[in-house]
Amino acid sequence: MRRCAWLCLLCGPFSLALRVPSYEEDFPADCPESGFLYLSGRYKVARQINVTRVCHLVASPGTEIRLHEQIFFQTDATFSGSWTFIGVDHVGRQARCLDVEGEARFLNATAHFTNCGGHLTEDGGGLYAEKSLLLQESQLEFRQCEAKFGGSIFVQRGLYLSKSHLSVFDSKAEEFGGGIHVARFDVDDGSAAAFRNCVASRGGGGGMLVHNGTLISDGHISLSHCSSTEGGGIALLGSRSHFVQRQGSIEVLQSRSRSAQGGCIHVDSKFEQHVDGVVILDGCASAMGAGGALSAGELEQQGTIQISNATAMDGGAIFVETTARISGRIMTRNTTAEAFGGSIRAEMMLVLSGELRIRDSRAHFSGGGVHLTSMKVAGGVVDIQNSSALEHGGAIHTNLLFSQSGGRVLVQDAEARWGGAIRSFWFGQKAGSITIRRCHNDVPDMAAGMGGGLNLLGGMFQGEGGAMFFEDVWTSRNGGAIASIFIVSRGNMTFKDVYAREEGGAVFLHKYRTHVGPRQKRFKETMDKLTEDVIEYTLGGRHARDYRVYRSDYVALRESRHVFHNCKASIGGAIQAAGAVRFKGHVEFRDVMATTVRGGAAVSCIFMGVVRPVTIINAYAPDGGVFCMQRAFSASMMTFINTTAPQIQCATRLSIIDVSVTGTTASLMAPKRKIERLTCDNGLEGYLDNMETGCHRCRPGFFQLQGGPEIRNDNQITGHNCIQAPQGSEQIDQILQIRPGFMVARNNLSTSLRCPNVMACPGGKLMADQGVRDMCEHGYEGRGCVNCQKSTHGRVTNNPFACAACAERPFRKVFQWTWFILQNSGIFAISASGVLMVEQESYKSTILTNQLMSYVTVSLPVLTAVMYSQTFRNTAEIVQDVLHTLQIPVEIADSGGGEGLSVQCLLGYIGLEKTLYGTDVVFAATALCLMAILGWLSDFWSAVVVGFNCFLPRICFCLGRHLVCYRMLPQAQGGHLVCGFDEDARIPKPISSVMIAACFVVGAGMWAVLLRYRGESSSPGVMYLTNAYTKECRMWEITVLLRKMALMAVNAMLPVTLHASMQMECISVILLTSLVMNHRCAPYVSKAWNNSESILLVLALATVSLTSCYKANELDWSRSATNQQVMMIIIILMATGPAVILGIQITIALYRELTEVPAPAESKEPKAD
């Protein structure tokens, strides 16, 4: 029998499809006995049809039923196939389309209900089911249906969707359930339900209403543009109502509740969302109620909820009557509450894990982000940005307690009068982190409150695992970051860029005041009990008896770490407390400021105690102290860096073990003081009086750089006192400006020493924070900077007061030794060639070489004077390189080293001690070796003549360096004459004098003996000395030798860096005497040679005179830099130009003398060329 029934079910539609009448038939009066009713075509229901049997109705495609009255099923009904129900001119009392008094099922069906029901229809304008409604693999669509309850569907029991789709459009209910009214609604993971433009005029559930039952969703539910008085989209009413979303998605858009709760969704009892569920609510509003998007009696959330553009009276996005437990993701944006909770309002909120992110929320009274009675964050992330409230709690407002045991809390860009970020009675943080940025309580058109970050009516407790960070938080009144009654902390707190216009830039602790009248005692007992509970939660209950709600203290326990960075207020730049401040952990103050004379750049309170070291960097108060105490102050170790004085002000007593003050003066003020050790900065002087212990600056004209003072046991001042500033210095505050050419010694800073070499002492600034530094130029050391650093430098050969850097690389060392030997050998070889080739007539190259060597003895000190001038030092490096290049001919002809060569460095290269006598030995040994070679090649007298002519002036210069005498202080100030240098102090000075005199005597004497007793000898040396001169002046070469020796001795004993004017004057006298003698005697046999000698002497004299003018002008304040540079270039050209020309002439003359045949001997009478 069952097989036949199923066969009929399958074959019936095919047989009916053979004919589809175009006219309307009357709907069958009842179901056949078989239980199957097959329909095809168009039918009308003119009167109510009563179906008495259990019926399974099967419709072929295109089946349309037009209803003037309802079809009434007295028992169960099952629908399959394709159906279209159209309500037409309903006149009955129950003008719905279908009424099933049993269970209604749609199996593999597609049904469209249009214009069913009316305003007189009691319930279910499209479909009424007494028991349940089951949709299995079906699609139902309702359009423009209306009833008092359940505009499209009313089900007494449950509506079940299994792999089906339900659509309700433009549906209306006079009372509840604008789209559907059910007792239970189940949507499996393959099903979906969509509601659009559904309205419940005087009741709840604009889209759907679940009465006292459960909504279980595993699929997709979407609603848009629905409205009602309660639950504009979805409403679950009744004490047993339960909303469960296990997976899938629910989307409600542009829906509103006109007068009660839940603009999009309202659940009287519990809203539960599992991990895989997603709820999206947008454009929801509750005009006069709570929960602009979602309201529920209880919230259990593990999935994802996204809410945007929601408004309500309370809870702009979510309203929860009891507890909201959050373990998933809740994200709200652009939500507003007319009273409390811009995004969320609840009695209790537990953030267990997941994320709570709120953006752009507003509340017109309190709780710009959330408004709660209590809140606990155990894990996850709470992120609130850009929220505000006019009165309390720009981001979070809790009436009783905010607590945290884990997770992260981030509040940014929040504002409210009282508590820009958070307002609560109690605040307890056991673990986790809280970050508050860019929050304030400056509300437009409102008087400022307190607490730019936190405003606590009770107090704050912080456990060891807690961390709080405040940045860019401020207030127009008190408590830039925190305003509270008291703070007890064992965790970490950091305040950065916080500001209060009045008191407490970071923290403001005030006294608690209550006006509870006769109930004050009971209120106090309640608060004390609650205090114990909070301490038990955050601190473990170990300190419960020590803290009460009425004590305005700031207590940081031993495990804490508190940092105050860039805090500012009128009073108490970092902390202003009406009670005591006790720091037992690490604390640091940096860039703190108080702007009024009442002070307290760091802390202003009644009493302060510090156990661990405290560092204060960059603190400022106009006249008040960095720490201002109305009673006492006690500390172990404190460090003040760049802080204003006084550092500490106490009204009664002060007790400190160790205090260090750097970068500023020090002042510790109290009637009773016990200071075991106070150390001040270099440049200050310690002092004591009845009210103050400290260190002040030196009076004008005095300074102190030897080391900071130290005060022990409050009555013993040790360290250096202020001393008078040295001559040649200028004092500006704690800076001592030393002029160039002066230096001060470490052992006597009041006395300034003049440096023999001005370039060795650059002067500069001596600062108190730097102490006494080395005042010599790099490479110089010692008193007056007259010594060279032994390890790296050596004395320059031509200036004992100048130092040159020694080479480090082996190649450079070998090169310098080679250059020194070639330089000495070259000029010796040229002179020797003139001696060896001389016959009856002196060669021109010999005369030119002699004149070149004479001219160089003048050029050398002139160039040295120029090189050691400020104008030359200020010249660009490329110009200096060019000028140094022009000196090369002079250095070659000098036969002993140029300005940059140090023979002492040559000694150091071979492991010998760097001394002046060592350089003398090197020159003497070089001369003897070359003379021995020449004596072996020619004869003894020729070697003596050439050796004396080339090296005796240089030896006089070397010996003269030991006779240099100078003063470092004026004689009137007790300056002693110092002769010689430290490295040769063990050798007696008279030896040098005797040896110089011996050089003059031996040199002139041996040449005189040679000319007198061997005048007719054929020795080339004798002919070298006599052939160029007339018979009357045959000993003239002796005067030339003496002139060169005198010039070199003057150059050595009167260095240009020390006695420039005297040296130039002596050289001028010698040159002038030589010029006069040369003019009167005309010693050379050739008139041209006499003229060239006179010209060279005139040029040398002019060069020396111009150099004297140049050096004198260096000291003139009105000098012109351009004029000095022009004079410098002219002097260098005059000093080097003739040497270059003579060198070229010598080269040409040598070439001709070696290639031409010697001319016959001529008379030694003067002749004209």
Structure description:
The chain has 1169 residues and is an alpha/beta fold. Among the domains are: 553-724; 735-747 and 754-785, no CATH class; 805-1155, no CATH class. It contains 16 helices and 76 strands. α9 runs antiparallel to α10 (940-960). It is elongated, with a radius of gyration of 55 Å. It starts with a helix and ends in a 14-residue tail after the last helix. Mean pLDDT is 83; it is low at 1-21, 514-518, 544-550, 895-899 and 1160-1169.
Notable characteristics:
1169 residues, alpha/beta, 60-stranded mixed beta sheet, 3-stranded parallel beta sheet, disordered C terminus
List the helices and strands and how they pair.
Blueprint lengths: L1 H15 L7 E3 L9 E4 L2 E4 L3 E3 L3 E5 L4 E4 L3 E3 L3 E11 L10 E3 L3 E11 L12 E3 L3 E4 L2 E5 L2 E2 L5 E3 L2 E5 L2 E5 L2 E2 L6 E8 L4 E5 L2 E2 L7 E10 L2 E5 L2 E2 L5 E4 L4 E12 L2 E2 L7 E18 L2 E6 L3 E8 L2 E11 L3 E9 L2 E12 L3 E8 L3 E9 L6 E8 L3 E9 L6 E20 L6 E16 L16 E22 L6 E3 L2 E3 L2 E9 L6 E3 L10 H19 L15 E3 L4 E9 L5 E3 L2 E4 L2 E9 L8 E3 L1 E4 L3 E7 L6 E3 L2 E12 L4 E3 L2 E10 L3 E4 L2 E4 L1 E3 L4 E5 L3 E6 L4 E2 L6 E3 L3 E3 L4 E2 L4 E4 L2 E4 L3 E4 L2 E7 L9 E4 L12 E2 L5 E2 L4 E4 L2 E7 L4 H27 L7 H24 L2 H5 L2 H10 ...
Parallel strand pairs: 1-3, 2-5, 3-6, 4-7, 5-8, 6-8, 7-9, 8-10, 9-11, 10-12, 10-13, 11-15, 12-16, 13-17, 14-18, 15-19, 16-19, 17-20, 18-21, 19-22, 20-23, 22-25, 22-26, 23-26, 24-27, 25-28, 26-28, 27-29, 28-30, 28-31, 29-31, 30-32, 31-33, 32-34, 33-35, 34-36, 35-37, 36-38, 37-38, 38-39, ...
Antiparallel strand pairs: 57-61, 59-63, 60-61, 62-65, 63-64, 66-67, 67-70, 68-69, 71-72, 73-74, 75-76
